[in-house]
Amino acid sequence: RRVLLLGEGNFSFAASLCGAAGTCVVATCYESEEEVSRRGRAAESIQLLRERGAEVMFSVDCTKLKDRFSSEEREFDCIYFNFPHCGRKAGVVKNRELLACFFHGSAEVLTEEGEVHVALCNGQGGTPADQPQREWHNSWQIVAVAAGAGFILSNVHPFKAETIPGYKSTGYRSQDKPFCIEGALNHVFTRSTPLLCFTPMVCEVQLESQKVSFQVPQVLVDKMNRDFLELNSTHPVQTVKEKLTAELSQAFPLQNIDHCLSLLHQGHLNGVCHSNVFWITLSPEESPSTEEMSDGLANTVLYSQADLCRDTDKNGWGNMQEGYHVSKEYYLRPSLLPYAQAIIQRGTFLPGTLHVLSGPVFRKCLITPYSMPVFHEMILVCTVKRGTENSCIQMLVNNIKSSICSLQQTVSSFKLSISLWEAMSFETPELNDFATFESQLSKIQYFICMEKDTSGFCEKSSCLGITRTAHYDLVSTELVFVFASLNLDLLAMLICGISDWRMLWTSDKRFLSQFPRGELRLFKSFSLYPPSYVHDVSFWVPDGEQFDELAFHTIARWVSGETVISIQLIDSFQQSETGRKSLCYRLTFQSCDKALSRQNVAEMQLLFRKEINKHLGVTLR
What we know:
The protein is an alpha+beta fold and 621 residues long. Helices cover 24% and strands 24% of the residues. The protein folds into three domains: 2-191, Vaccinia Virus protein VP39 (Rossmann fold, 3-Layer(aba) Sandwich), CATH 3.40.50; 201-285 and 300-307 and 328-518, BirA Bifunctional Protein, domain 2, CATH 3.30.930.10; 533-620, Ferrodoxin-fold anticodon-binding domain (Alpha-Beta Plaits, 2-Layer Sandwich), CATH 3.30.70.380. The strands form five sheets. The protein has a seven-stranded mixed sheet, with helices on both faces. α10 runs parallel beside α12 and α14 packs antiparallel against α15.
């Protein structure tokens, strides 16, 4: 294990580390050997290092490491830089610049899975780990500086000098004097996976008797064909599904019917606004061109409300086989409920058996903490005799609740509070868009909700699932069909303590490595205190047009690669003379798993301004 130590003052830290078994130490300092040797105990530490086979180097500039080490010497497993400082009374700006150059230099000599350790005095880092925490502008902003070189903060812990044999700090105001290291912190950085650069993606599916292809909307490119629910998957979403169905099978005969579900629907679901679905234009003979895909809203077809009026059945769902549709116009499935309905109408459901359908569904939505443009839905369907549906719902919900609580308690001692809310008393604005969308599909009897908690996961009540009933007289006049719909992604987040839905879709292997096959564990984030950046955008809305806020949010999603976490309207006014309306929005950027730098965000903001002008016709201010 090759370890590089930079900026050593008297080499006392290097000397203590050199004794570790299996460690090859390269200890360096910025000054010449003559200057360093005049410091107390430095000559003694240098001699000890050399006797133990360590390499000692002088006049090493931590910002130019590539120039100092040949290509054969660069593969360091760990780099230490304790208490970096420009010297004397250098301010926070100069020290940020020093760190920025250091991180860029370190990236060139570090192994792919190597670590960079930076010890800072209390308050300098600017993270919540500092107690007290300095104001951001008055700190060294270490997480933002490191992000510029592709690093994320993966661990932070106290720098305990008393546990390091022989260690003594030196260098106070560039003198051979100690400085205060009480409350100092060691920051451990690792490489981030790169920000995604999306390329056009064509998806081929079987539709009835022919294979068809379509270009995937840009915002979903990294989320298609991820196969979370495959049998050999170790993803927590799949594990939650497996364990939940295993629990339910103790109370009901159970049958899975996932194998025949198409990604595409044709026609329209009653009550669902056309702008909430991802419309797709099929290309049976040839794929769309790359040029067509270059804009983020390719394949999004808009229709008026009048175009989308259609017949519905008495349960409030649009008929899959009949009603208005545009030729060759399809959309990515926003729900699995119509599949359950179609199977029922074919008479292939077994009475008394709990039938299970699951798979990803796709919905356009505003950017909020628990709003997901794609998630994995699980539909449970059971047929019972008329008059017994309420007891069936209660039995099903009680089993779902007990199963979720049982799974969660295997991971954490925190006790969940899950309740059943009647739809008539349900306050939709207080919950997530999952409940809002589901209530558009058909009449809902109950919502399965996670109550507010103090764990930090759920700041307000959140809907995990819904239940409803339906009658199909053409199938049977004596049977009632009971449905339950669950959001598997939210359940996985709840059980494993994952606070950000985007983490479920990360490409970083450190996520799945925490979930061995068949195990659910409490998730430990590998990117701590990620930096956030705020940008405002103001513009004039086209005269006489209603501003499409959903399209505005969708553009922000794909332009930023899902790094926009909040969009707030902060100002709105209308000119009395012309009637023109101006809006000003504030966008907050933050990544939960990747290094996101100021430069990255500035480029995203410029592209966002260009795209909203192109697609929404706004005039930028």
